Amino acid sequence: MIKFENVGLRYGVGPEVLSDLTFDIAPKSFQFLTGPSGAGKTSLLRLMLLALKPTRGLVKVFGKEASQIRRSQMPAIRRKVGVVFQDFRLLDHLTTYENVALPLLVRGKEEAQYRSDVTELLKWVGLGDRMHVLPPVLSGGEKQRAAIARALIDQPAVLLADEPTGNVDPPLARRLLRLFIELHRSGTSVVIATHDLVLMDQFDARRLVLNEGRLQIYG
After folding, report:
1. Quick one: 149 exposed, middle or buried, by C-beta within 10 A (0-12, 13-18, 19+)?
2. What whole-number distance in Å separates Cα of residue 217 and Cα of residue 209?
3. Edge-to-edge, what's the strand order for the sheet holding 64-65?
4. Each residue of 32-72: pLDDT tens digit?
């Protein structure tokens, strides 16, 4: 689904922040992306999302080389990729339900087509009784689950999650991990960026370890 070959990334004229990355994200796979703060995890996720272009090397997403993807093709490709941002990015003037439904609304779907799906997904992430409240009323953990539900509502082929458990307590972190595992079992490829070793030890999965811009793969 995603393939990197000898990829390097630098910002401006500075040194490379990522160097010689070669790996792939296979269909229906699960992996953790880890490494110390500043190692480049978020930059790597942005390359996978095609929000950044590599300075050198080859990036392919769903069989298409990133440098050859036309602007008009980008929305269709990005719809296949769900993203959970570290800062949630919920819209405060929309209810939990409306935030989760937003990707479908942007695509032009009528509410009658997605109402039951959004409601069911919110119940699945434990927000069935918080559907009609605004984000400022939600706790940090509830906002995180709403962001996860929004990333899942369009049934992505790949889910990229940037520190999805960084703002919640350990019991909720375990619950969120179980949600990602269930998603993986349903056929979605999952990439979770985290520095939480305790969390990673709870599930036997491949680890992509970044250190000083270089990648090692375990498992």
Report:
1. buried
2. 6
3. 16-25, 2-10, 56-61, 64-65
4. 999 998 889 999 999 999 999 999 999 999 999 988 888 88
pTM: 0.88
Query: Tell me, what amino acid is at 211?
Result: N
Whole-angstrom Cα distance, residue 142 to residue 81?
22
Task: Return the exposure string of 153-164: e unless at least 16 CB atoms fall within 10 Å of the residue's CB, then b.
Answer: bbebbbbbbbbb
pLDDT at 128 over 80: yes
